[in-house]
Amino acid sequence: MKPRESGLTRFLRLIRFSHTIFALPFALGALLVATRGRPSARLLTLVFVCMVCARTAAMLFNRIADWTLDQRNPRTATRHQLISRPVALVLLALSSAAFVAAAAGINRTTLLLSPLALGIIFFYSLTKRFTAASHFFLGLALAVAPAGAWIAATGRLALAPLLLGAGVVGWVAGFDLIYATQDLEFDRREGLRSLVVRLGLARSLRLAQFLHLGMLLALLAFGFAASLGSVYFWGMPLVAGALVYEHRSAARLDLAGINRAFFQSNAFVSAVFLASVAAAVAL
Question: Residue 152 — left, alpha, or beta (φ > 0 → left; ψ -120 to 50 → alpha)?
């Protein structure tokens, strides 16, 4: 008999907490570069809290916005059983408030920009209803993380975090296109807008390849703009190798393989990026 899940376990599964590993390393990498490897414990903690709270709020908003759609999609049909809608609304309010409070503890600029950041990450959940470019809006939502971390450290933006943000947009849009191939028939039946629906499987996967190539170029440009040493660039072939693995898995159109490659390769990409930045700023 399968043991009953605790409420916390169901909640973490609902918001895909394990996927926090995708965006967090890019925020921490930007923070390390902006502080030249010496962020204070207080700043590091507040940035971490902002990241976790913002992502939790974004995922809860997504689940609420897609409540009825998820119930009709075989892949997500059991999501609504993990939590009730009133509880999700309460947790959304609490996580959003905690994000703003943490941003207020960093500096005035992050406080003033915190509602804009929430607006951007919430807006993604609505885009699939009116534009096929929803994958890029998801990328923009995650690109807020490194930009926000840089502003937290310096109080302003610069070229380096913008280049890193562009890389995150290409990376996320690319892997979201691959992930969206699982929902092609459902999105088509429901009249939802998606590039996979518009372009078809083959051209969508080709576009994802170009987006990930652009991501690699942006990461290289970030390394030059941030004046990182050669050790940072040594990590880029590993990033490229992980992306190649992901695309080879996607080309087989094996859904189980796509899910496995999605998590493994993207977690590896983000971890290698953070390790490369950490090594570069330490030398």
Answer: alpha
Q: Which domains does the chain have, with CATH numbers?
A: 8-282 (1.10.357.140)
**Structural tokens at position 3:** 């043991």
On average, the pLDDT of the chain sits at: 86
Q: How far apart are CA 79 and CA 188, in angstroms?
A: 21
Amino acid at 170: G
Global pTM value: 0.88
Q: Which residues contact 175 (CB under 8 A, 6 or more apart)?
A: 208, 212, 246, 262, 266
Here the tokens at position 270 are 């983000």
226-233 mean pLDDT:
94
As a residue count, the chain comes to 283
Which residue type does 39 have?
A: P
Sign of CA pseudo-dihedral 199, 19, 7, 121: negative
